[in-house]
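hey can u check if this looks right to u? its 136 residues, i copy pasted from the old doc so theres a chance i mangled smth
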Amino acid sequence: MTALAYKNIAPPDYKNIEVNGIKYYGKHMMLTCENCNESLTDIDTMGNFLKDLADEIDMVRYGEPIIARFGEGIEVGLSAVQLITTSALTVHTNDAARDLYLDVFSCKWFDEQTVRDHVRKTFNPKDVTYQIVLRK
C-alpha cells in the first residue's frame, strides 16, 4: 500500500464524473431485460456479449469474462462478470423466463443508449427497463 492509501486520503481528483456541478465516483446502470431470445442461454454468446459491450462503451477489459451456469429448479441461469479497469460488467440470467439482469458500473462515463442498443442487438428482449445511479 502507498502511504496515501494507508492514511485513507483520496486524491482530490479521483471523482471523475461531474453532473450539474456535482462530482461523482461512478455511474451505475441497472437493466432488467425480459423475454430475451435463445442466445441468452449460450455461454459463448454471453462471453462475446460482455467483451463487445466493454469495447463499445470504450472500457478497457481486464482478462476474460468469468461465466457459469448454476442454480436449482426454475432459478437456473448464467452468472457472469467482465472486469474492466474502471470496475465491472455483471450479468445474471434466468433460463426458464429468458430474463437478463445487467449491471454496468464504471468510474468512467459511458453512453446509456449504446448499452441498450447492444442488449437489443444480441438478446432482442421484449421489454427493457433500467435505472441510473450516480454514486458519490
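The chain has three helices and eight strands.
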